[in-house]
Design brief:
globular, 1 helix, 6-stranded antiparallel beta sheet, Jelly Rolls, single chain, about 20% helix, alpha+beta, 7-stranded antiparallel beta sheet, 13 strands, SPRY domain-containing protein, coiled coil
Length: about 180
């Protein structure tokens, strides 16, 4: 190969890497925007700050926890716990959410990172809300059917055999909690 051809190949490789980075950045920004747009159901007590990309549950709320759920199904999301206690996971439904009608409880399941499963198949359990700091990523692998939870350097395969196609991100906050969406 000639020197010019090698230079051209190297330039193309650099452009490809730049495009990959830009696509990753755009994907992250799109996911962040979903939390602050019209694509979520959330407790009225939550406070949203678009400049810092934080969602918080004030200290003085009169409930034991608050929730936010995206109604856009995505297979991976990441948050940073800045203060307080949070639980993270997915709501799964066996058919897509239709905003014009209620979802039947028998089709709805909640899968939290700490192994808590709420749905018709098992008795209702309560989450430990054990996540207090760090960056947490929840992802679903379509090939293995596993939901994986990663917090800082610890990775855990939380649920196996998840067949539902529609996974809706869920965050549950204890009072005096602040989370940044990444």
């Amino acid at each position: 190969m000639t020197k010019e051809l090698l230079n051209e190949i190297n330039n193309l490789k650099q452009q490809i890497e730049l495009l990959k980075k830009e696509m990753k950045d755009q994907s992250s920004m799109t996911r962040q925007m979903l939390w602050f747009g019209d694509y979520s159901f959330y407790s009225e007590n939550l406070v949203f700050d678009k400049t810092t990309l934080t969602i918080s549950c004030p200290k003085n709320v009169k409930v034991s926890y608050c929730n936010i759920m995206l109604y856009i199904p995505i297979k991976k999301f990441t948050v940073r716990v800045l203060n307080g206690n949070v639980c993270i996971g997915f709501v799964t439904v066996k058919e897509p959410i239709d905003l014009n009608r209620a979802v039947k409880p028998s089709l709805l399941h909640v899968l939290y990172y700490d192994g808590v499963y709420m749905g018709d198949d098992r008795s209702l359990q309560r989450s430990s809300f054990g996540l207090q700091d760090g960056v947490i990523t929840v992802s679903y692998d379509e090939k293995t059917k596993f939901i994986t939870f990663q917090c800082n350097d610890i990775e855990e395969k939380g649920f196996k055999g998840v067949e539902e196609n529609n996974l809706y991100p869920l965050l549950s906050f204890k009072p005096d909690t602040v989370v940044q969406v990444l």
